[in-house]
Amino acid sequence: MKNLSKTSNCSACNIGIQSLFKNLTKEDIELIETNRLEVTFKPNETIFKQGTNASHIICLHSGIVKIYTESKKSNFILELVKPVEFVGLQSVFGDKVFHCTTTSIENVSACFINIDIIKSIISHNNNFCIDIINFISRKALFITNRATNIARKNMNGRIADVLMYLSNEIYNANPFPVTISRQDIADLTAMSKESVIRTLKNFKNSGIIKEEDKYIEILKFDLLNQISEHG
To answer: Domain total for the chain?
Structure first.
């Protein structure tokens, strides 16, 4: 982890046009600007640790992070997050404890913003408060849907879901780079690493996907979608 000097200001940064901050006033932006800290992380560094006190949220500028719950037996990845996105907002209204761990998958750059600053803005900016509530609600619905799909689907269906999730929502590409590990895919699908490797091999042998030079290409998207729906 490395602290950086401020390389830009919030009004010029991408976060200024993101939906969550669209209702911030000039004064609100300036308050965040004077109280933020830019930090970079190498792959596999912990940003937030499950069970620790939550004093800050982050705005993710570059790179991808995973948010997951930890247990003695296994981890479960709730979601992957890409720029520009906010992590830790649930703790603003909660018990100021992180109930998940956030770890960098790639080189990551993020701004840390003190929770008290966010609360201060919420206290006088009703529209911003509504934006945060909507954001948290969308996150809760996404995680509920993921958990439901995992509970209902077999291994083929779960892997199909993850491949389309990576292609359509995380990397927005086909083929897409494989920057997550097989263990990460296992933690996304509540499967063993061995089952993930075996299922991906079956998909490759069936001509559904191709993997080459650390990239995965979906060759039969319609078939993969059918496997996802009926898996």
So the answer is: 2
